[in-house]
Records
---
Amino acid sequence: MATGRPVRLVLDASLLLDPSSTREAAAVALRPGVEELLRRLRYSNLSVAICYAEGMPTNEVLY
């Protein structure tokens, strides 16, 4: 049932990033299926935010 209020979704970066990838790698590895999830969320009407650990650089590009 639609309430008219905006829907917000907060994802933790640990759910998106592959734990076997190293921080020193040139690109951050995503878990299998995450690219499709992010693609679908991009075209949804949801407001999406990604939270990350304090030590994680803010210039990491997830998609």
---
Amino acid sequence: MSAEAQPISAERFAFAIEDLPVENLYSKAQELSNSISHLERSNHQLQEYIDSIRSDTTLSESMRQEGDRDCAEAIQENNVVIERQKDRIQLLKREVERRGGRWHEADNSGKVNGSAGDPTTNGDAMAAGRSTGGTLTDEELRRQLMGRLGEDDNADADGMDL
């Protein structure tokens, strides 16, 4: 076993997600987006630290020029991971679209716009008061129950539905 774990290839990732439910595809995309945000924030902080070293006149000129080599390497490594994760999100998007669904990007709050539960939904169901993630809104549940109760009114008076 190697000392460093290597990431799964893009081809193997695409194969691995083929049988996942759509909800899981969106969940994985959200997880990757969250990771990208953390890595970008980390890179920003590392760069600020490098810049502070370079502008610190109490350090020797050679130390300022060199900056912090470890931080610079970490930024480069993070950028590689960020690009890989962006590629994975694109693979998830392609998989949803391959199934005939429509991809819904995450909004600024980190929540996915539209439906993760129904790949054919374009987000209009949420605006119409219908839930799309495998659960019903109170209003939709009420409508369905009322519809079923209305059907029961037409049932035979002799029998009882269980």
---
Amino acid sequence: MGMMVAAMEREARTAGAFVTVSSTMGVPDRQLDTVRLLRALRPRALVLTSSRFMVNALEGRLGKELLSYEREGGRAVIVGEAETPFDSIGFDNYGAGRLAGAFAAETGYRRVAIFGGAGELRNMSDRTAGFVDGLQAGGVDGRDIRTVYCEVSRAGGFEAARRLAAEGMDGREAVLAVNDIIAIGALSGFRAAGISVPGDVSVTGVDDIPLAGDVTPRLTTVALPLAHAGAEAIRFALEKAGTARWLCLEGRLIVRESTRARR
């Protein structure tokens, strides 16, 4: 998120605009209260970024608040969900997951664990579905794919890795984590359990946060264009358009030292 906000600020400066950031931690009531508060200040535009947006939220009180704001002459842009009633920039989370799943299958892995898969977060469930389809398209039997549910945090990844290690890895040779934070936690959990990455298990994440290139081993991941999304969000916010515009951005696979071809 930091990369996205920095890109927003750079783009706004070039247009002579100013960005103010408010954090709601993805909590619907806080999102609604923040939008109401900011409306009173009459900003030129509102950009809402969250992995926790759901269609029903935008169809409910939050959506009505944003529509009222636009009728008053403001402009709302949603980052994180595509195809909303507002200008929207989303990510192909399913495609990102499929890239990672296909890569694991192509490099010879046949028993795979997925870390995460929290159903209430649409981006995470989309990535999980992509993992499964990419693996199966590469010849992995669905019965050999196991989802290990965990908190979407570094601690969640650490505990999921420790649980899997305590089970003797359950024969799993590769782990696909729904984001880099979980994957980085998993690296620490496996290290604490005496499991070598990538010697005993390969680990792949999604997002390509800055820390992904700094941990040891450096993390293989699917990079999402977060900075590009931030810049595009400001362009959408400052441009005039008659109808809602939708943009979906794709990820790209970055192979680093946390994975290797199966022997």
---
Amino acid sequence: MKKLKLIFCCLFVLLTMVSCGSSKPIVLQNETTKTRIETVHDTVFKIEKDSSSIAALLECQNGKVILKKIVQSESGSKLKIPKIRLADNLLRVDCEAEAQKLFAQYKNTFESENKITQSPPIEVNKLTFLQVLQIYMFWVYSLIAVIIAGWVFIKSKL
């Protein structure tokens, strides 16, 4: 029974000593965020068609074909004038073009900076001086009540 009363008194003291949270100042932070966006674009170059041509007169002598005269030859914008070879009744025409690259990429970079500012919160139910004084006086009264209860408890046992 004595231990039960002692435990009860200790719990009573602990419950009366518990207080609300402290009033700490509010710290506001201004944040800056940087955003960087890189976009890779592909592009295709259109190359117009190109042609080269040649016209020649052929003649047959002793059963073999020979080249008599080149009448007309044209080169294209990329193609050179065709080369003609005639050997053993076989006509060969060669056209050459320069090498071309058709694929390309380019990057587009966009950077933005956002500043985030926080405003202080609005205190709606701020206690007045009288209310704060009443709270502190309650704690003083509770402390005095615990001391008197302890004194009475000790006196009753002796």
